[in-house]
Amino acid sequence: MGKPLKNPPTYLINSVDHALRIAAMLQLEGELTVSEVAERLGVARSTAHRLLAMLVYRDFAVQDERRLYRAGPILELAAHSPSAASRLRARPCRTCTGWSACSTSPPT
Questions:
Q1: Residue 69's closest CA among 39, 32, 96?
Q2: pTM over 0.85
Q3: Residues 51-106 pLDDT 10s
């Protein structure tokens, strides 16, 4: 079952949208070049470079010596910070002695 498509906000800010999309790509997919980012976003390489530079400045991305970009400290921290849902899943099961991997169904 797929997620329903979201409607864009009334006042879409393309630069913010692009920066957030880049951050998600870096976090989910790993290393990317400026050219790969530009192609994925459908923007000029110079635009992709400026967006990546801003993400590096704010620690959302880092650039290595090979000129590849990857997730920075902020995104790494977010990846290891448990969400509310994961904290709930980590609670012990009342039916058995296991933790979040319990296969028992909740009572109906």
A1: 32
A2: no
A3: 999 999 999 999 999 999 999 999 888 767 666 655 555 555 555 555 444 555 44
